Amino acid sequence: MEIRPATPDDFAGIKAMAHAAWKATYADAIDGETISRTVEEWYSESSLQAILDQPETDFLVADDGGVVGFCHGYVDDDEGDIVRLYTHPDRWDEGIGYRLYERLRDDMRDSNVPEMKAIVVESDEMARTLFTRMGFEQSGSGSVKMGEETVGEVVYSRAV
Question: What secondary structure, in 3-state letters, does the chain show?
């Protein structure tokens, strides 16, 4: 498996993988229609291209003959933000998410940021456990609007 920068050729695989991950992760907390609409919006070709076009942005995929995981992070002043970190549900517990995180963290170290932040949907116990295991500590909370729903979020931080 290769961890590498995403390209436009990966967009269809990223979107399909995101939909599978969201359905498996959020089905009990977020309405199925809201999941589909949000994935369509957040993972459209134009949205993904906009991510690639942003300066100081890392958009990585785990490629194992197709996209099996991806992460998106960026550097803003003296902080690195992890926006997305997903693995295909069929590949959970294989360490793919951790490998993506390690590469992202290394890239952020190269940018000399002292701190990383990750925002996780409050009901996503798997992500909350993962970030805690990776040395993050809860540092705040908030919410995000997804369609007509407002979903709670938890903010995690750690030194790079």
Answer: CEEEECCHHHHHHHHHHHHHHHHHHHCCCCCHHHHHHHHHHHCCHHHHHHHHHCCCEEEEEEECCCEEEEEEEEEECCEEEEEEEEECHHHCCCCHHHHHHHHHHHHHHHCCCCEEEEEEECCCHHHHHHHHHCCCEEEEEEEEEECCEEEEEEEEEEEC
